[in-house]
Amino acid sequence: MADQKIAAYICQGCGLGERLDTVDLAKVAQKEGKAHVVREHEFLCNVDGVKTIQNDIDSEGVTHIMIAACSRRAKAEAFYFPAVAMSRANLREGVIWCQPDTDEARETTQEMAADYVRMGCAEVKKMIQPQGNPGAVRNNRILVVGGGMSGMTAALQAAKAGYGVVLVEKAGQLGGWAGKIYKRIPSRSPYQDPQDTGVEEMVKAIETDSRIKVYLNAVVAKTGGAPGRFQVEVGQESGAAGTEEVGAIVQATGFSLYDANNLPELGYGKSANVVDQAGLEKLAKEGNGAIRRPSDGGEVKTVVFVQCAGQRDASGKHLAYCSGSCCNTSIKQAMYFKDANPDVNTVVIFDDLRTPGNGEDFYRSAQNKGVTFTKGKVSAVEATGNTCKVTFHDLILNDQNATIVDADLVVLATGQVPNSGVDIDAKLKAEVAAANGDTSLLEAIEAQEASGQKPISVLNLDYRQGPDMPQLKYGFNDSHFICFPYETRRTGIYAAGPVRRPMDMVQAAEDATGAAMKAIQALENAAVGRAAHPRSGDLSYPSFRIEGCTQCKRCTVECPFGAIDEDEKRYPQFNEPRCRRCGTCMGACPVRVISFENYSVDTVGSQIKAVDVPDEFSEKPRILLLACENDAYPALDMAAMNREIYSAFVRIIPVRCLGSVNTIWITDALNSGYDGVMMMGCKHGDDYQCHFVKGSELASYRMSKVDDTLKGMGLEVERVRTFEAAITDIERLPKLINEYAAVIREIGMSPFKGF
Amino acid sequence: MAKKEYAFYPGCSSQTKASSSNYLVSVNSMCKTLDIKLTQIPDWNCCGASIGYAEGGELPRHVLNARNFALAEQHLSGQDVVATCAACWLGARETKERLGASAQLLADTNEALKEAGLSYKGEAEIRHMVEVLIEDLGYEELAKPVVKPLAGLKIAGYVGCQTNRPFGIAGESFENPKYLDKLIETVGAEAVPYDQKVTCCGGALAFSEPEKSQKQIRDIVESAYDHGADMIVTPCPLCQANVEIYQGEVNKRFGTKFNIPVAYYSQLLTVAYGGSAKDAALDGQVIRPTKLEELASKK
Amino acid sequence: MSEANTQAVEKYRNNFLKEVEERVEEGEWVKMCMQCGVCSGSCPFGPHWAHPPQEIFMMIRAGKRDEVLTSDSMWMCTSCYNCIVRCPRKLPITHIMHGLANYAHRLGLAPKGQPTREFGKMFWNNLVATGRVNELKLSLSLYFKDGFSQGIKNAMAMKDVGLGMLKAKRLNPFELFSPHGCKDRKGIHAMLKKAREIEDRRKHLTS
Question: Which CATH class is domain A141-254+457-528?
Answer without folding.
Answer: alpha beta
